[in-house]
Amino acid sequence: MSKADVVVIGGGIVGAAVARELSRYQLDIVLLEAETDIAMGTSKANSAILHAGFDAKPTCWKARLNVLGNALYRQLQDELKLHIGWTGSLVVAKDPVDMAVLEELLVRGQQNGVNGLALLGRDEVLAREPNLASDITGALWAPTAGIICPFGATFAFAENAIRNGATLLRETPALDIVVENGRVAGVRTPQGVINTKFVVNAAGVRADDIARLAGDESFTIQARKGEYILFDRSVRNLVNSVIFPAPSKISKGILIAPTVHGNLFIGPDAQNIDDKTDIAATGNGMDRVITGARRLVPNLPLQAAITQFSGLRATAEDGDFILRESEAARGLVHAAGIQSPGLTAAPAIAQVVSALLKEAGLKLSEKRDFNPANPLKPAFQELSWEQRSSLIASNPLYGRVICRCETVTEAEIVAAIHSPCGARTVDGVKRRVRAGSGRCQGGFCGPRVTAILARELNIPMTEVRKDSIDSRLFFDKLPGNCEVPAHE
Ligand SMILES: Cc1cc2nc3c(=O)[nH]c(=O)nc-3n(C[C@H](O)[C@H](O)[C@H](O)COP(=O)(O)OP(=O)(O)OC[C@H]3O[C@@H](n4cnc5c(N)ncnc54)[C@H](O)[C@@H]3O)c2cc1C
Fold first, then answer.
1. Where is the signal peptide (predicted)?
2. Is 51 considered catalytic here?
3. Which CATH superfamily groups domain 89-143+222-315?
């Protein structure tokens, strides 16, 4: 790839949504991702909530784009086949100070244009959520909040962009931005320079480093880590909606929420960190998360915890999104400082970025054959016995269950590998079809998924990676041509 109309740097939810938005037009679009896969930065580890939009002050990007993004997801849900549950959310109060915060949030939400907000009394809250702490005094109910699969959404945006002609280059970091006479002229990658006049900076916590490559020192990004604990499906019914405490100045607080896949999680805490690669789960983080969540639900079923994870918020100095053309390098548009509610706002951010590119001189001519829809991919686990039998009759690989915890078949894994922006790593398979997401966390299916990847990608097992570039699973003494081990 030696030239493009637009290069989008960063394959998180924002870069993928931008690529998809731009794929409506007659443009050569390249989406660059440094890692082995897209959705490996903040977009893989967050609270997965489609926020209603009452948190941010009305004058900022966050407020406007949260409410618009939430509305856009309602339309995109069918088009892109997104996994969304419109559960609503409750911000609960425990004392008069918290109640005053809820009243402020109610007014702010109404100013932001959030529909259906209501203050509920204690009895009404406990009728909806019987497992909440008995000392709560009331809550702010937001019916438009929802839950989503964040990596599924990132894959869906990217897949649709690719179906509409965009090119995804993985393991291809932007090493430099070529600037000539104050204008962007190209992006240097390990494979050479991609000549382009327009670049979108959607590099998450690295967005300030990307800006610096173009000589733009106008902002810095502070990484703020948040840790989580994920619970087994067996305790999914502990809460029915997303439950927040009254928020603090720096975070929405430690919450408890169901996931679209039927699990439950608690978190995140909020710790500023210097190392932008540090996503380790820590003992102290776990303690903070458990203490915070117990204030909401005292009887936490800790025995049902199956894993921990953490994500990094990309925090800008003034706390708002940075959406503008760079003054140092014309044609470079920043989508930076995209902390929460960036997942919710992503489709709206994509529209703003597209408008900024147009203002910067990019010609946007609509494509007549733009197809906004992705095809439906059946999840074997969710089908009736009749539907399963008919799939097995059409393709016997549906009859081989590789992940026992989540009932994921070999046919689904093979399809995930060969789809546009297909899986190349064991965790890439996990994030697309959930093999390895269950109670055993890949203890059983991990080697089988590895062997299927080796076979389908035609590489030796020793070349298969768990997730990141340096995460090979096997070394030496393995046959080059591995087959999936037969079932016992
Ligand atoms: C703890 C936590 C909880 C959150 N909860 C919510 C929530 O419930 N709801 C919500 O709406 N939002 C939430 N957010 C925010 C949301 O997750 C982010 O706003 C969103 O994921 C940011 O997406 P992004 O595409 O900007 O960044 P990322 O997903 O980080 O993507 C950036 C990508 O750029 C790539 N990259 C970096 N450098 C280069 C380079 N040189 N070349 C090529 N590629 C590069 C990275 O590898 C990465 O894949 C939360 C965030 C955190 C951390």
1. none
2. yes
3. D-Amino Acid Oxidase, subunit A, domain 2 (3.30.9.10)
